[in-house]
């Protein structure tokens, strides 16, 4: 399903880059192309060069946001890579937060939901990913409150079942059969660990899944 916010951003960016308007997101004068919106949005008022830098930085951010949601930290890094000044970066990103085009709280919540549902990731992995994106510890913990122990266990079971599909588990009590079962168990527990599930819970879930398939 299309995201109305992303569609609006794409349309705005196309108009902005074609020269049809400076910006219709920040209260600018679309007819005259004046830079009054730049000043209102916190753009440097020291002259044309500063205004141009602000406009270019803003266009860069809009372009990034049309691809996928980004954290403030990710956007700041992108602007730093393009060597925009620190003042311009701060001004642009502050203004984007004011109009809710940057929202780290919602970004973190969406990231947790999507990565958990699509990849089966547990809290530890999600926490690490959000930390890498510059999300604060407090915001991360609030976002992770969406996941219950039952949610994480269900995701882990689904991952294990997928890996066991088509795998023959030996049921004998001989040393070779036991060795093979231990190898499969270690592999599955390691896989769950890499997906951010706790070792204790991972071992218990793997053992239960293998017992069910061996029954």
Automatic annotation (TrEMBL):
Residues 36-52 have a biased composition (Low complexity). Residues 57-96 form the RecX first three-helical domain. It holds the Pfam family RecX_HTH2. Residues 20-55 are annotated as: Disordered. Keywords: Cytoplasm. It is found in: Cytoplasm. Residues 103-144 form the RecX second three-helical domain. It comes from the Bacteria. One of its GO terms (biological process) is regulation of DNA repair. One of its GO terms (cellular component) is cytoplasm. HAMAP family: RecX (MF_01114). Modulates RecA activity. Belongs to the RecX family. This is Regulatory protein RecX. The gene is recX.
């Amino acid at each position: 399903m299309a995201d109305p916010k992303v569609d609006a951003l794409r349309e705005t960016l196309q108009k902005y880059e074609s020269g049809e308007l400076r910006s219709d997101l920040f209260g600018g004068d679309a007819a005259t192309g004046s830079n009054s919106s730049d000043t209102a949005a916190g753009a440097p008022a020291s002259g044309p060069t500063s205004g141009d830098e602000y406009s270019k930085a803003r266009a860069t951010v809009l372009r990034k946001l049309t691809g996928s949601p980004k954290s403030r930290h990710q956007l700041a890094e992108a602007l730093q890579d393009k060597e925009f000044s620190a003042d311009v970066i701060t001004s642009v990103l502050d203004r984007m937060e004011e109009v809710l085009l940057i929202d780290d709280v919602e970004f973190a919540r969406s990231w947790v939901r999507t990565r958990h549902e699509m990849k089966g990731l547990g809290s530890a992995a999600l926490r690490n990913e959000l930390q890498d994106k510059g999300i604060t510890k407090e915001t991360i913990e609030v976002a992770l409150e969406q996941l219950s122990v039952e949610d994480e266990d269900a995701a882990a079971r689904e991952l294990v079942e997928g890996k066991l599909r088509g795998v023959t588990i030996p049921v004998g009590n001989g040393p070779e059969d036991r060795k093979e079962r231990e190898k499969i168990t270690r592999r599955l527990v390691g896989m769950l660990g890499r997906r951010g599930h706790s070792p204790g819970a991972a071992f218990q879930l793997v053992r239960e899944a293998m017992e069910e398939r061996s029954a």
